[in-house]
Amino acid sequence: MKKKLLVALILCSSSVFAQKSAVLQAFKKYNVSEDVLNTNFKANLEKYAHEVQRTVTLNEKDKVYISNFNPNEPDSLKCTLVSVNGKSPSKGEQKAFVKEHDMKLDFKIDENTLKITKDDGTMLEVSYQYDPASLDKDHQFLKDCLYTLHIDAKTARLEKLTEINVKDLKIKILKVTKMATVINFKYIEKDKIYVPTDSAIEIIIRMLGNELPMLTSEKYTIK
């Protein structure tokens, strides 16, 4: 019995290693930098002064937040919420904004989940999941999401990242039946980094037997 278990573990480990090796070989084949495996491209924006326009759509009503980031300001003033629906933000909105932007995220990829899902010579797609051990208590639900990198094999550039939940999620007190994310990128040649240009997160919340859709979109403009 122990011998069979040992053999199974060896075969499993070999398969996982082969999947990761295949991903790295594909990167080499298309001259794709392993930088595409960065899990926090949004942090790259902090090298530049930029504006973020966030639109939250709930019950067919939009709420638009405008914020600015200036890397040359003191830490407490780098990121400021400018307006909400064209008006000065309330104290509650300011407090929520500060809390969100004080949150430091450092999620890591579970290398055992790296897998090529498409390689047709035009597009290279690589999927993965997060290492649960790297997720804080507020983001444990992300372990049940699958992420896919969409890479242009001709240019060797990352075009977008998509995310989809693989099972229903529990986000604090909410039951979420769908969470689908798309983040588009551009490559800044002089600095050799990717930055997001826009993103959209669609969430469907199940509440009292009903499904409530919510869409959060963001547009990032470097000044």
Automatic annotation (TrEMBL):
Cleavable signal peptide: 1-18
Originating species: Pedobacter xixiisoli
Full protein name: Outer membrane lipoprotein-sorting protein
Keywords: Signal
